[in-house]
Amino acid sequence: MSLVDRRSVQNFDWVFLLLVAVLVIMGLVNLMSAAAAGVEGGTSNVVRRHVMVMGAAALVMGVCAFVDYRHVERFAPIIFVFSLFLLGLTLVVGVVTRGAQAWLFEGGSFQPSEFAKVALVIMLARYFHRNPPSTIQRLRQLVPPFLIVALPIGLILLQRDLGVALLTLLVALTYLPLLHIPMRAWSAIAGLAAAGLAALWTFGLRSYQQQRILDFLDPARDPLSSGYQAIQSRIAVGSGGFLGAGWQEGTQTQLRFLPTQHTDFVFSVLAEEWGFVGSTLVLAFFIALLLWGLWIAQSSKDGFGAMLAVGLVGTLFWPATINIAMVLGLAPVIGVPLPLFSYGGSALMSAAIALGLLLNVSMRRYVF
């Protein structure tokens, strides 16, 4: 089995690449506006760094696309263990930023938990390829995948990064609809989950994390401090109206009322400047990309490719959903970036790996 099969090149998925390219261009244009406020003399350092990371991400995506993904299954345990090692190393030598010890280097330049999500999907895809979800009908059969999921999430919780831990859990839960476990079993799990959430609120969450959840329920309780982000985001989205204020014309963005507008709240910038029409267009391209990813999973000729594609769609769907819900005030502010739009090297590289592997599976759907 060679690393690159010539037949896969003949079946290159141009539609998938076009959807990715459109979203990347939209994200760059939006980021240029988000980072322009207060910057004189051309493109800001944020945009320059983002473009450099985009170049590296394109290279990584290409490698992940053209190296046969069946090799990934062989090395899945090594990839997974290495991701756990990086998470553990972060607990020892990591840098504390915004209350979480989630970055290996100063300045938040490398976040191992972003790559752990992809490693987790690769490992789960390997497990479900060898143990098809349709054959899983009892809870005890979920013990091995539960342990696979619990290891990275436990390490991320030790980093005090609750938002990424929740996101990683949701990515793993992408496989749940494929299981055939009776509803009564899920009722028991729901009861245990409720008890676990109560214990987490009482003993696991720090005060600032509890404040974020309370602010989500009632942002007006502390409008000048903990509720400030949510309120300003809603103002930005609402002020965009139907057509928006225009590129670099949004007052919330250009006057810096909107916090972290180039990272967590980059969709607020989009909504203010391009309005309902522009936001809907971006969401339409996101939905098209995700649906195309599910089609890739359905078209795959082997179990690992199908399971891998489903999980990779989850790594894109859940952060996009949480980020947009957070911006609209439908979810707590937990610091989840919007894929392909938010500034951040680790998040962009992680998305590039996921997209490259999805393209990989698509290109080889005729090879078998």
Can you describe what's shown?
- This protein has 368 residues and is an all-alpha fold.
- It has one domain.
- Helix content is 66%, strand content 2%.
- It is built from 15 helices and two strands.
- It has a two-stranded antiparallel sheet.
- The longest helix has 34 residues.
- The mean pLDDT is 82.
Distance between the termini: 12 Å
Largest sheet: 2 strands, antiparallel
Shape: globular
Count of helical regions: 15
DSSP E strands, number: 2
Residue share in helix: 55-70%
Strand residues, percent: under 5%
The radius of gyration over CA amounts to 21 Å
Number of domains: 1
In round numbers, the mean pLDDT is 82
Assembly state of the chains shown: single chain
Query: Secondary-structure element sequence?
Result: HHHHHEEHHHHHHHHHH
Q: Return residue spans where pLDDT drops below 50 for at least 5 consecutive residues.
A: none
Q: Largest beta sheet: what is the strand line-up?
A: 1-2
SS-based structural class? mainly alpha
